[in-house]
Automatic annotation (TrEMBL):
The keyword 4Fe-4S does not apply. The keyword Mitochondrion does not apply. InterPro entries: Aminotrans_3 (IPR005814), Aminotrans_3_PPA_site (IPR049704), PyrdxlP-dep_Trfase (IPR015424), PyrdxlP-dep_Trfase_major (IPR015421), PyrdxlP-dep_Trfase_small (IPR015422). Coiled coil: none annotated. This is Aspartate aminotransferase family protein. It comes from Mycoplana rhizolycopersici.
């Protein structure tokens, strides 16, 4: 099976611009993947954050096996099935009171955000939506319509207005970043965007694909206050950094806010395709009207998601994400003192980003070096990826089961990769 991608004859720089590795995966256990050449790869990506419990977790295997034996196919458009009812009840118990109404299930973060985008304008009669520059809410037409990532230019909705996500690193300080965006919002409301025409504000509690940006203290509380003042729905996209990854169950808890609508995906299914939107009944009834998909609420995926939530709770994996995340963070901080390429390290728990810059003073993006580092790390046995509006941020979203030893081992590999990139050995 090896040789799915030709390795010979391709220059490294050509490979470096691939986001995908020239290898197929034939297995996985815990934090390790097995490549088609038999190599063990330490996975700091966890399939872009989806494999929340690591690969082939026994709780998911058992739940899926049970559901496959008893209920596979028991997903019927006009009816519910036991795992998805239990999952809906569990999710409702986890969100703030104001969002505790009904649950819609989909297959991906994209279809969930698309459903929300359609639902909020239909339910409120307001035509406008706010979101952030750099926001990645999905890859379907309807989710790209409310996204601000550069990859999605051209697909934006006519009623979408993008606001700068506060970037404490480029702004020089958290306060400067927070104040700049808040005054931008005030000017916007005063001059361009009548707030009573805005249905919803889509937020990422940590902007992951935009560069793992952590909001400054107090920022989202101020946004929440503005939303309440103007009757704007606060939609929190927890797809990438939620479900324990940040060290708390919801990443928005770090900001002390209470969204009206919460969107889950990726880690919810532990690798199986399931997403969920949770919100007040009056709104969610609109979703029921237009957003039917044949196998949504699939019992096999819902059973996997229930197993994920039970394991996160039972094994205290959010706490593990906080603890192991701090080991990872400390090890990365040590690297920063030896690698001039590292400009900034940020994130919460096991959602961390390392911004690479070619010049510390100007913070010029080292995008080529980021791609080369990801590729060299892969050659050395570590799976990483890069994100960011400037494509220069290494992203770490490993399984929530990661151990301190695995964290240290991954950083040792990253150290070698950064050294090889610096020394021009790749
Ligand atoms: N929302 C966020 C914050 C994401 O990071 C992503 C994917 O990276 C999505 C939504 C889209 O999820 P999916 O790729 O499952 O459609």
């Amino acid at each position: 099976m090896s040789g799915l991608y030709a390795r010979e004859g391709q220059s490294v720089s050509k490979m470096a611009h691939l986001r995908f590795f020239p290898q197929a995966v034939v297995g996985g256990r815990g934090a390790y993947l097995t490549g088609d050449d038999g190599r063990q790869l330490l996975d700091f990506s966890a399939s872009w954050g989806s494999a929340s419990l690591g690969h082939s977790h026994p709780a998911i295997r058992a739940a899926v096996d049970r559901a496959l034996s008893d209920q596979a196919g028991a997903s019927y458009l006009s009816s519910a099935n036991e795992p998805c009812v239990l999952l809906a009840e569990k999710l409702l118990s986890l969100v703030p009171e104001r969002a505790r109404g009904r649950v819609w299930f989909g297959h991906s973060g994209s279809d969930a955000n698309e459903t929300v985008a359609r639902m909020v304008t239909a339910a409120t009669g307001r035509p406008r939506i706010l979101a952030f520059n750099g926001a990645y809410h999905g890859g379907t037409v309807g989710s790209m319509a409310v996204s601000g990532h550069p990859a999605q230019q051209g697909a934006r909705a006519a009623g979408l207005t993008l606001v700068p996500y506060p970037n404490s690193y480029t702004a020089g300080s958290a306060e400067a970043a927070r104040d700049a965006t808040l005054s931008h919002l005030e000017c916007l409301f005063a001059a361009e965007v009548p707030p009573d025409e805005v249905a919803a504000f889509f937020i990422e509690p940590v902007q992951s694909d935009g560069g793992m940006l952590v909001p400054p203290d107090g920022f989202f509380q101020a946004v929440e206050a503005l939303c309440r003042k103007h009757g704007i729905l606060l939609v929190c996209d927890e797809v990438k950094v939620g479900i324990g990854r940040s060290g708390r169950f919801h990443a928005y808890e770090h900001s002390g806010i209470e969204p009206d609508i919460v969107v889950f995906g990726k880690g919810l299914g532990g690798g199986l395709p399931i997403s969920a939107v949770v919100g007040p009944e009056s709104l969610m009834n609109h979703a029921a009207a237009f957003s039917l998909q044949t196998v949504h609420g699939n019992p096999v995926c819902a059973a996997a998601a229930l197993a994920v939530l039970e394991t996160i709770e039972g094994d205290r994996l959010a706490e593990n994400a906080a603890r192991t995340g701090s080991v990872l963070r400390t090890a990365l901080d040590r690297l920063a003192s030896r690698h001039a390429l590292i400009g900034d390290i940020r994130g919460h728990g096991l959602a961390l980003g390392v911004e690479l810059v070619s010049d510390a003073a100007s913070r010029a993006a080292a995008a080529r070096e980021a791609a080369l580092t990801v590729y060299r790390a892969f050659e050395l046995g570590l799976v990483l990826y890069y994100v960011g509006v400037r494509s220069n941020v290494l992203e770490f979203t490993p399984p929530l089961t990661l151990t301190a030893e695995e964290a240290e081992k991954g950083v040792a590999i990253l150290d070698r990769a950064l050294t090889d990139v610096r020394d021009g050995k790749i």
